[in-house]
Amino acid sequence: MRYPLPTKPLALCFQGRASFYVESTDIGETCVVVHCDATGRILCWCLAPSVQLSLAGLADQQIRCEGMLVDGRPFTCTHMQWVNWPSEGVPPDAIALRASRFVVGREEPGQDWTFSLTNLLLQNFSIDDQPGRVTLRDHDIAATLSPGPDYAIRMNYLRAYKGIDVTATLRLSSVPPGRDLRVVAQDVCLVLSVLTGHRVNWVARHANTTLVFEDRITKPCSGWPVLGRFDKALGKEWSWQDLLVSASQALPFFEQHAAAYRLRCGLVDSWVDARIETDFLETRGLKTVAVLEMIKSAHRDHFNLQGKFYDLLGRVYNDLGLTVPAELTTITEIRNSLVHEGRFLPAKMEDVQQYELLSHHTDRLVLALIGHQV
Fold it and tell me: Which helix (H) or strand (E) is 281 found in, with range?
């Protein structure tokens, strides 16, 4: 079945009136329009900006606003910065402020949140609409992973344009109160990123009448399957239930290795970035080598080791319970050629085969960090 492609990712629009504050000084009230899109971007348009607000934006002072939407719900925007943005359906003299958070309603600590996830796709491009349900190991948290109501359309958009869009929701419920569900959701998103090869992140969450948008890290969708193309691809038969079960099984291993291998501090983001197909093959190869360097260096620093790339990477395989590949010498040679000459090995094998070799074994290491050994 073919679905019409949307012209651009879905964005939500809110209208109301707000009082603006520079530091702690109230500088007046005006009408606002707030746009929130799937990339995590929050733009608050001030329709009748005062001179003080314009000057505060240029001076990089701390700005926030509080007000009421047209439907009567209270809202706040915090950590706002002036940005030069093309106006879309607003007066030409309106100014745009980018906010880090946009809260509709009264935000209170809660143990039942639903998170909107970007770029979560089933590997087989299935249009299965049955949600997955598990209890996260070691946390006593009930998790439900569901595709969005227009998942098929969003999936086709991402396949065609390699963009960013909200495709699914993750509901977390904890009884009795336990860990901060925002932290758990962040870890689950990183695990889902590793299992699918796309940077999955939550950009909004809601509970009862409270709706929270946050400016978070998102990346374009990658078309390169985890472990490689064709029959090697990870999860080509998975349903939403299978994906969530795999994520719940991987979460304890992720938490075990997170500090030593800096999984929450850029490793997963760098690995995903190396997979994005908009770069030249050599650039993707260099980024993949950079991920290997990050893994090797994290292992070296954690265990206070010394040695060359080949020896330290072999120790990483041993530490993660993997067999050292026979191709490790070739991987090292490809790495040296990319780092020192900016190209793949000449006359060794085709460039795409060298990239696939690098990518496949890097995938194996990253998967092993979350307990998924292949």
Answer: helix 281-303
Q: What is the pTM of this model?
A: 0.91
pLDDT interval class at 9 (50, 70, 90): low
- Specify the DSSP class assigned to residue 98: E
Q: Which residues contact 214 (CB under 8 A, 6 or more apart)?
A: 40, 42, 100, 101, 102, 202, 203, 204, 205
CA distance 358 to 292: 9
DSSP string, 197-222: SS--EEEEEEETTEEEEE-----PPP
Distance CA 17, CA 70 (A): 8
The C-alpha atoms of residue 320 and residue 195 are separated, in whole angstroms, by: 17
Averaged pLDDT score across all residues of the chain: 88
DSSP character string of 303-332: HT----HHHHHHHHHHHTT-PPPTTHHHHH
pLDDT tens per residue across span 270-285: 999 998 877 889 999 9
Tell me the CA end-to-end span of the chain in Å, nearest whole number: 34
How many residues are present in the chain? 374
Q: Which tens digit of pLDDT belongs to each residue from 311-352? A: 999 999 999 999 999 999 999 999 999 999 999 998 778 999
**pLDDT over 90 (residue 212):** yes
Closest CA to 118 of 10, 32, 226: 10
Query: Is 192 buried (19+), middle (13-18) or exposed (0-12) by CB count in 10 A?
Result: buried
Please check the confidence at residue 230 and state whether its pLDDT lies above 60.
no
Residue 263 pLDDT greater than 70, yes or no: yes
Cα–Cα distance for residue pair 201/186, rounded to 1 Å: 7
Backbone angles phi, psi at 370, to 5 degrees: -110, 20
Domain boundaries, the chain: 11-104, 112-223, 263-368
Pairing assessment for the beta strands 74-83 and 63-69 based on DSSP bridges: antiparallel
- Neighbouring CB atoms inside 10 A of 135's CB total 12
Taking the CA of residue 344 as centre, how many other CA atoms within 13 Å lie in the half-sphere pointing to its CB? 21
